[in-house]
């Protein structure tokens, strides 16, 4: 994750534990040749559906050029939307933009349609159709003058594209041409003419249709706008969307997001502490465009409150809004809650701030301030909605406990959940010169160990009699990453969200959470788009292996948890993640069992952490009797580093097969090394 997110967990696990001088992995109990797993026939605990939540914030291409169908970047033609780090990335990927911005002043990432036309552009400030800036284009009879932007298109799915723009005619001819051309050859593949004679700002629309034989998946194109002859015209707020968009949303992203079956969707993150909800309401093409100072990227405010509620409706997910406890006020939060209630019928969850303990948050709180601030916002929200579900911003367990204590000293029912964030790198163990296998084994141990630390948070909560049984843990961000140098650089050198090893991590985390349904009752995986979820690169949608773990596991929401015992071996790690210290008794084979609410299906959720051993497992189901073929879904690979990308979007996906039900004795199955296996077993009622 970017530096600020890495800091999240570093801060939360502030007090590190002492490490031995010679850190290592040692077996605590040897793994038998055949592991036997005993599954109980009955249980009393239910899997909280809310542990299958996801998370969305404007970071990278998660919202803009991600879940949204809009293809153009900076259609509002504003300047100053990227910080220095992101500008470096932009110029590295498109070095021609350096010349463009130096010679013409055209706002990034636009460039002259025809560089030989010279500088025929003037920025105007203060009379824009949207926000603050517009661009005057001064045409000449020859050569053709205009602007262009390098783009990718989902031509594997859609060939027709909707174009809109605002224009204000100044002098000369009145015609405009919009076009799509091949980026490399310059061949025009589609174009449409617009007559724009109005001397006041007016919106114009048209369509562009490509031919299938002219295009290919992952091809680079240019979108261009040219002016006729001597036309002088002011341009603003350009848009290009595929004709099959679902409202403002990418249909492929929506389809994959629906398949996750997220119970709730969180709208929060580092932008929360400076987000003012009124920027995201009203006519979309009149909303302010600005820099997202949390991540140094443009924010167009196209996904505002109404659009987020529409997205939640499309995904059948409960909206979870993080309120601005940084630069916001209780009155502003109350007004937002009032607006949400006027535009949404049904359950809503509210989070009182995001990582507000961290100095990277705008308007962060000190330990002495957090209780009063939380109470003020809680009371303001409850004045609008007395029964609101509220999550207070907690801090991780390896601290002195004073932050959480301040919150737990608040009156009963001030909030229902205490949040925790678990976002941590896997590629920098404390052991010097750690081998790849050591790094992987240490990473796989983390999900098991961190849950034991979260138990300490629940113990602190339960030490307050007024809160025991009333306040639970909400892990509102969780992720495993492999952090490189730079703000958003990641490496494929250890198990992480990007590769098959990340599937083992995600499943291990879910298994730890599912075994604690009385304490950890809500979690939000980072994220719906990007990181452990769905990605869009060059207009190709794909998902990382962790996404498929989420999809497989979310099927047990609401099931009854069945106790499991096993003789699997375990191992210990010293010298892994510094924040966690020594990690002990990590099971090689980790199994959670659930029974469906209709009692017809037994599900076994299995993780094999062993690095090199395919492990034979006997599942003793006791009196539970399979009645038909068993469905096996498995995520495995020859290497933990294998991944999906836009070139091979389906390289690592669950493989599915069926097994005959055993006629007698246990169910036997071999679990591949570093794998995730889910078995669905039909049962007698």
General description of the model:
With 685 residues, the chain is α+β, with helices and mostly antiparallel strands. The chain has 2 domains: 3-13 and 53-67 and 247-555, TIM Barrel, CATH 3.20.20.80; 84-242, Jelly Rolls (Sandwich), CATH 2.60.120.260. It is 21% helix and 31% strand. It contains 12 helices and 36 strands. The strands form 8 sheets. Strands 4-15-18-19-20-21-22-23 form an 8-stranded parallel barrel, surrounded by 5 helices. Strands 3-26-30-31-36-33-34 form a 7-stranded antiparallel β-sheet, with helices on one face. Helix 7 links the parallel strand 18 and strand 19. Helix 8 (367-384) packs parallel to helix 9 (402-408). The protein is globular and about 85 Å long.
User: In the CATH hierarchy, what is the class of the largest domain?
Assistant: Alpha Beta
Query: What is the average per-residue confidence, as pLDDT, rounded to a whole number?
Result: 94
Q: What Rg do the Cα atoms give?
A: 27 Å
Percentage of residues in helical conformation: 10-25%
Helices, by number, come to 12
């Amino acid at each position: 994750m970017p530096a600020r997110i890495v800091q999240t967990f570093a801060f939360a696990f502030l007090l590190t534990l002492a490490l031995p001088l010679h850190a290592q992995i040692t077996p605590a109990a040897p793994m038998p040749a055949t592991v036997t797993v005993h599954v109980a026939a009955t249980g009393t605990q239910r899997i909280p559906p809310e542990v299958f939540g996801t998370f969305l914030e404007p970071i990278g291409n998660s919202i803009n050029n991600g879940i949204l169908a809009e293809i153009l970047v900076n259609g509002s033609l504003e300047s100053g939307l990227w910080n220095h780090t992101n500008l470096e990335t932009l110029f590295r990927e498109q070095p021609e933009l350096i010349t463009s911005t130096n010679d013409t002043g055209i706002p990034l990432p636009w460039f002259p349609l025809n560089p030989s036309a010279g500088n025929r552009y003037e920025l105007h400030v203060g009379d824009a159709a949207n926000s603050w800036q517009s661009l005057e284009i001064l045409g000449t009879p020859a050569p053709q003058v205009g602007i262009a932007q390098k783009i990718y298109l989902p031509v594997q799915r859609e060939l027709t594209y909707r174009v809109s723009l605002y224009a204000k005619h100044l002098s000369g001819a009145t015609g405009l041409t919009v076009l799509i051309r091949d980026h490399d050859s310059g061949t025009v593949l589609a174009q449409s003419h617009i007559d724009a004679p109005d001397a006041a700002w007016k919106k114009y629309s048209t369509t562009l249709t490509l031919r299938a034989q002219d295009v290919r998946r992952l091809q680079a194109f240019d979108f261009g706008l040219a002016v006729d002859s001597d036309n002088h015209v002011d341009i603003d707020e350009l848009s290009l969307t595929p004709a099959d968009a679902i409202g403002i949303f990418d249909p492929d992203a929506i389809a994959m997001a629906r398949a996750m079956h997220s119970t709730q969707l969180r709208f929060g993150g580092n932008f929360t502490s400076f987000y003012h909800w009124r920027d995201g309401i009203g006519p979309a093409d009149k909303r302010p465009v600005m820099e997202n100072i949390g991540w140094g990227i443009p924010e167009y405010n196209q996904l505002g409150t109404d659009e987020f509620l529409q997205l939640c409706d499309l995904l059948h997910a409960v909206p979870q809004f993080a309120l601005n406890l940084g630069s916001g006020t209780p009155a502003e939060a109350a007004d937002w809650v009032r607006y949400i209630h006027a535009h949404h019928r049904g359950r809503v969850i509210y989070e009182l701030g995001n990582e507000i303990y961290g100095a990277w948050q705008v308007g962060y709180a000190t330990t002495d301030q957090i209780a009063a601030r939380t109470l003020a916002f809680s009371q303001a929200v409850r004045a609008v909605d007395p029964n609101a579900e509220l999550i207070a911003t907690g801090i991780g367990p390896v601290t002195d406990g004073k932050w959480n204590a301040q919150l737990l000293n608040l009156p009963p029912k001030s909030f229902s959940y205490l949040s925790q964030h678990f976002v941590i790198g896997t590629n920098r163990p404390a052991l010097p010169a750690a081998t790849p296998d050591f790094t992987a084994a240490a990473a796989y141990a983390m999900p098991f160990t961190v849950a034991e630390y979260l138990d300490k948070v629940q113990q602190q909560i339960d030490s307050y009699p007024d809160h025991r049984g009333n306040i639970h843990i909400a892990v509102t961000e969780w992720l495993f990453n492999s952090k490189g140098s730079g703000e958003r650089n990641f490496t494929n050198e250890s198990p992480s969200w990007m590769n098959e090893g990340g599937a083992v991590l995600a499943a291990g985390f879910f298994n730890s959470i599912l075994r604690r349904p009385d304490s950890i009752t809500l979690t939000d995986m980072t994220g719906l788009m990007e990181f452990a979820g769905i990605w869009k690169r060059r207009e190709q949608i794909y998902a990382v292996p962790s996404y498929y773990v989420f999809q497989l596991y979310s099927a047990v929401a609401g099931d009854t948890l069945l106790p499991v015992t096993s003789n699997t071996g375990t191992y210990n790690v010293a010298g892994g993640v510094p924040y966690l210290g020594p990690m002990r008794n990590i099971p090689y084979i980790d199994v959670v069992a659930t029974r469906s609410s209709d009692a017809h299906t037994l599900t076994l959720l299995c993780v094999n952490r062993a690095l090199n051993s395919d492990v034979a497992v006997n599942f003793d189901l006791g009196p539970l009797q399979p009645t038909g073929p068993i469905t096996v879904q498995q995520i495995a690979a020859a290497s933990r580093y294998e991944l999906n990308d836009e070139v091979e979007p389906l390289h690592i996906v669950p493989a599915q097969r069926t097994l005959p039900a055993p006629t007698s004795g246990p169910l036997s199955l071999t679990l591949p090394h570093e794998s995730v296996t889910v078995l669905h077993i039909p049962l007698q009622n």
